Amino acid sequence: GFQVSGSRSRRKGANYERELARKFAEVMPGASVRRGLQYRDGADAADVETPVFWVEAKRGKKPNPRAALKQAVDAAPKGRIPLAVIRDDREEAFVVLSLDDFLEFVSEWWEGREQ
Cα 89 to chain center, whole Å? Predict the structure, then answer.
């Protein structure tokens, strides 16, 4: 029934969040990176908590990147870059963020690279 596929997709989502947290932690040594556990009402915790990004993770047959980004944008606190990491089943993951946030990030990276 529905419970089985629902719990399977929840488990798949949790595994994906753990995998993403590991990947972020690898490239941000020393940073506090972890799965954002869905305490409180669940809506205001990022799927993956990092110092810079507010990460909404979606994995499945055809996750909706626009809806995922909107969810991240609506929930992200000031100072965090909202982004969605989308992974269709058996495909490579990709990142969605607003152009303004991306350009701001590129600008900071570019300046830091010059030093």
Answer: 17
Residue 35 near residue 57, CB atoms below 8 Å: no
Q: Rounded CA gap, 115 and 100, in Å?
A: 24
**pLDDT tens digit at each of 115 positions of the chain:** 444 466 777 777 788 899 999 999 999 999 989 888 765 555 568 899 898 899 999 999 999 999 999 999 999 999 899 999 999 999 999 999 999 999 998 998 899 887 7
Number of neighbours of residue 9 by Cβ within 10 angstroms: 13
For the beta carbon of residue 42, count every other beta carbon within 10 angstroms: 9
Pairwise CA distance, residues 115 & 7, whole Å? 49
